[in-house]
Each structure stands twice: as C-alpha cells, then as structure tokens.
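Supplementary Methods. Inverse-folding protocol.

Structures were first reduced to a discrete structure-token string of length 224. This string, shown here, constituted the complete conditioning input.
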C-alpha cells in the first residue's frame, strides 16, 4: 500500500520548487514540458485537491507551502540540488535560486558553498552565453556535499515516484557530434562529467527501494 508523509499542499509546492530549479537556466523545450506534464498527471491522481501548477514558484509560496519543519526544508533543498545537477551541468542561475530558497526556508547550509566549485559559467568570449564547464581539482572539497546529499530519506510514495521519473535510469551514453562526416566534439557520458552522479543514482535507488519494500509497488516501469 502506498504511504504518504507530506500533505497534498507540501507535495505540490515541493514538485513546483523542483521544476522551478530545473528550468531556471531558461531551457524549457516543448518535449520537456510534455514529459513533465505526463509525470505530473501520473502523480496528481494521488493529490485529491487539484492539479500541480507548472508555473515557477516564489520563495514565499515555497515557505508557506512546505511549512516550518527544518527536516522537510533541508530534504527539499537536497532534492533541488540533485535535480539541478542531473544533466551534468550546474549553472549560476540554478545555484542562485537554490541559495534563495534555502535562505527563505531559514536554513544556513555551509555545505552549499562547496558546490560553487562545480559551476558552469558563461564563457567570456561568447556573446551568446556559451558555458564553460566547472571542475573540481580537489575532490575532497565535495566529500561534505556527498555525505549531506546521501542523508536524504525517502518517506512519501508520491515523491518517490516523481524522483524515479525525473532522474535518468542509467548514465547516458557518450556521443560524438559530427559535421560533414568529421567528429568536431566528443561529449562524455554524464557520469564522467558529474562529480555527484553517484548521489543522484543513490537517491533514485532509495526511491525505488522505498516503493518496492515499504509500499509493495511494482517498480518495473521505472527500471526499463
């Protein structure tokens, strides 16, 4: 049987908050909107008092919706960080929004400062805003971040289903971009460019385990 911990209102603003972070870099393709709408439709059957809005959420709405439980607030920020880095690129817009949400929720998370090392920043020679990849020369700087992210517990079946849908089931394959038959750039698999990929996979695994072991749900649709 499915288990719920969060209220319907908390779930709504949680999901809206994650979507606001995911789209804060301005990349909102029609295909992405269609996919997200399908995911939202699947979980809103478990939310009796209406649909979940796809509109960006403000800090005030987030605070009013989540309430003042610091554990819930911190778990939201953990999930927001993982959703932000799911594509292997952590942008300044995502970083700033997560800091804004964290402060509004009354959290002082020094661990977030370590993530600045992974930021992708606008290339100074590209007027169109091309990004250069962030990198971490000393990976020990991210150890506190990894431990903090791994502390997130899954306690609600509806949120677990959403995370299983949002987080890729496997590391995307590497691919080459070719022009007139010649390779011009090689894109490595996401697990090679994302230093927190293991934490992302870990959250998905905990969500799957929760649905299977605690809620006794069939998880076959999430592992295809």
């Amino acid at each position: 049987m499915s288990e719920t911990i969060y209220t319907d209102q908390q779930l709504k603003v949680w999901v809206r908050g994650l979507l606001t972070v995911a789209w804060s870099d301005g990349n909102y393709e029609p295909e992405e909107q269609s996919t997200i709408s399908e995911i939202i439709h699947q979980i809103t059957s478990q939310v009796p008092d209406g649909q979940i809005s796809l509109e960006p959420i403000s800090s005030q709405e987030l605070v009013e919706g989540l309430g003042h439980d610091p554990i819930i607030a911190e778990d939201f920020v953990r999930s927001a960080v993982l959703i932000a880095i799911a594509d292997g690129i952590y942008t300044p817009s995502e970083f700033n929004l997560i800091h804004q949400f964290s402060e509004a929720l009354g959290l002082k998370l020094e661990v977030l400062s370590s993530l600045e090392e992974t930021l992708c920043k606008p290339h100074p020679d590209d007027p169109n805003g091309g990004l250069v990849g962030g990198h971490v020369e000393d990976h020990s700087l991210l150890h506190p971040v990894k431990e903090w992210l791994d502390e997130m517990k899954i306690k609600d079946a509806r949120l677990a289903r959403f995370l299983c849908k949002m987080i890729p089931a496997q590391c995307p394959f590497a691919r080459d971009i070719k022009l007139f038959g010649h390779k011009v750039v090689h894109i490595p698999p996401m697990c090679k460019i994302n230093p927190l990929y293991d934490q992302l996979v870990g959250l998905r695994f905990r969500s799957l385990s929760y649905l299977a072991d605690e809620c006794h749900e069939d998880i076959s649709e999430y592992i295809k």
